[in-house]
Specification:
Blueprint lengths: L13 H24 L3 H27 L2 E7 L5 E7 L2 H5 L3 H27 L3 H47 L1
Antiparallel strand pairs: 1-2
């Protein structure tokens, strides 16, 4: 997430970036503006949660792979234990990832969670626990992506370090 990028560098995947931001903005905008147009809590809940779920799916399965080269999922084994699975591109492909795409990806997933937290605080201040439920569901989906991609990024860094160590060790042992 280096901010010192070449001046002429553009987004490598503008359509993916657009939809990455669109679903986040749609969920937040609908939640914020819905009370102006709808009196039904059920409609607001259902539409907001569907938009948040679409955002979760797009980030987890599409924009995460294209913009930062990472993918994660969670499986339950036969013993009922939760296992996190991570995929990342190889070291050379990760090095070629567009910095603007990566910057947009990371900033938007963190910023979205912060906005949901602020909206949750407003729901508490206004004594609207039902709307806090909507915020809780949307915040949970946002945090799930943050945790998944953060763990995936850490796992990718470990794999790169391991690969580098093995390469250096094999090169060193072959010269001796």
């Amino acid at each position: 997430m280096d901010l010192s990028q070449p001046v002429g560098e553009n987004y490598a995947n503008p359509k993916t970036c657009f939809f990455h931001v669109l679903f986040k903005a749609a969920g937040l905008a609908f939640y914020i503006l819905s009370t102006l147009f709808f009196d039904s809590f059920v409609i607001i809940f259902v539409v907001t949660v569907i938009l948040a779920a679409l955002d979760f799916w797009v980030v987890k399965n599409i924009s995460g792979r294209i913009l930062v080269g990472l993918r994660w999922w969670n499986e339950i084994n036969e013993k009922g234990e939760s296992l996190w699975k991570f995929e990342c591109l190889d070291q050379q492909s990760l090095a070629r990832m567009n910095k603007k795409d990566s910057w947009l990806f990371w900033w938007t997933i963190y910023l979205t969670a912060v906005v949901w937290i602020i909206l949750g605080i407003f729901s508490v201040i206004r004594f609207e626990p039902d709307y806090l439920l909507i915020v809780g569901v949307c915040l949970t989906l946002s945090i799930a992506n943050i945790v998944g991609f953060t763990k995936c990024r850490k796992d990718a860094k470990k794999q790169i370090q391991s690969f580098a160590s093995q390469t250096i060790a094999s090169h060193f042992s072959s010269t001796i």
